[in-house]
Amino acid sequence: MVQVLEGVELAGRIAAEEWRGGRRVGLRSWLLTTKSRDVAERVSELYQGAVVRTTSGGDLHVRKLHARGIMVTVARVAHVRRRLTLENQEGLVHACDGSRVLPPMPEEGKPCGCPDDLFARRAAARSGAGPSPDTRLAFCLAAAPELGCFSFQSSAWQLYESLESVIHASRRADGPVQMELALREQRKATRSGLDVSFTYPEVHSVRRTSMVKSDLHLAA
């Protein structure tokens, strides 16, 4: 599996988006991808999973998870990466936290120039003139920590905003926090009068918890 956060050995990844037509689109169900058949079957038991496909050679197992919410444990604040990024054909051209430039950009620490207003930020991102969320997590499933760590990545503004409480809670606790990773559906009418719906992830019920080292599988 692709290693999303340095120092974390991953048992698989969970997604709530997929690429369609060159852009990320929200899914109505979680999507688990793992190299382990045992992990795929165990997670499917926990969250009403259904087989989606097995890739060529059977190297990856993919399951659609029908649970709306998944309780997870984040071991430390370093396992949360919350930033805004902008890329072009040459790669990453901007990374910031909304006020300051972040590494690996050479202007690290300088004001990023992004608008303070959230509406203006979203508008700039939609037009391609400003950065979009790049949120990444590494966590254990609260119901089965023995399975190891899973990664999660999202470009949803709702998750980017709700994760601020996770970062604050983890820093205050100086240790693991537990939260619900939830899928929410929102409906809205377009200017033409057509009703559309979209799904996005966000976090809830953030609280301090306890975790022993055996609950995590960290790379040496």
Write the SSE topology.
Blueprint: E1 10-20, E2 23-34, H1 37-46, E3 49-54, E4 61-65, E5 69-74, E6 80-88, E7 91-96, H2 118-127, E8 132-141, E9 149-154, H3 157-173, E10 177-189, E11 195-208
Parallel strand pairs: 1-9
Antiparallel strand pairs: 1-2, 2-4, 3-4, 5-8, 5-10, 6-7, 6-8, 8-9, 10-11
Short description:
The chain is of the alpha+beta class and 220 residues long.
What does it look like?
The protein is α+β, with helices and mostly antiparallel strands. It contains three helices and eleven strands, in the order ββαβββββαββαββ. It has helices at residues 37-46, 118-127, 157-173; strands at 10-20, 23-34, 49-54, 61-65, 69-74, 80-88, 91-96, 132-141, 149-154, 177-189, 195-208. Strands 1, 2, 3, 4, 5, 6, 7, 8, 9, 10 and 11 form an eleven-stranded mixed β-sheet that branches. A hairpin with a 2-residue loop joins strand 6 (80-88) and strand 7. The longest helix is centred in the C-terminal third of the chain and has 17 residues, at 157-173. It is globular. The chain starts with 9 loop residues before the first strand and ends in a 12-residue tail after the last strand. Residues 212-220 have low confidence and may be disordered.
